[in-house]
Amino acid sequence: MEMTTALWSFALVVGLLTLTPGLDTALILRTSALGHRRQAWGVVLGIQAGTLTWGTLTSAGVTALLTASQVAYEVLRWAGAAYLVWMGIGMLRSRGDGADPEEGPVDGGLAHGWRRGLLTNLLNPKVGVFYVAVLPQFIPANAPHFAAGVALTCVHVVEGLIWSTVLVGFAQAVRGWLRRPAARRLMDRVTGAVVVGFGVKLALSD
């Protein structure tokens, strides 16, 4: 397989993954729709930083520990589940006044969003396992393993940024409807339930 073919093939696979609604989509939509634009972009950049970290570690062979060590996987899995449940409960308890459960009624800013997005991504061991299982298959035999792996990961990051731009734009478009407290409460309840659900699913997964 040539590197150009590998890039296009990997782009197709992770493109479908990126478009599939999930936890990342819920967090980006919720944060942006509540008017926390800077924080929403922080979430986007944090998620993509996590993706780049997983891809880089996989290219270096470090994430193979997740599949080789049951203890390492379990520790990361339970830490991720606890974080998601804690974050989701915070959203469920929101008063619907636009306040972030952790930051109050104002936009927590880029740094807060980045931390939330990064932790959400890095504490999900399934992302690491996905990279361990999939990424090596797309690295050409005659290509430098580390450099090729990072290049493929960057394709995933670029696609994630493009799709996130669409999500943020959509959320901003419906922001007027979400100015009402009842609509904000509904957004927080739905997103909180989704996040808690992902946390419980992660905790119960084998």
TrEMBL record:
Pfam families: LysE. It is found in: Cell membrane. It is a multi-pass membrane protein. The keyword DNA damage does not apply. InterPro entries: LeuE-type. The chain crosses the membrane at residues 6-29, 41-69, 75-92, 145-174. Keywords: Cell membrane, Membrane, Transmembrane, Transmembrane helix. The keyword Nucleus does not apply. Its main location: membrane. This is LysE family translocator.
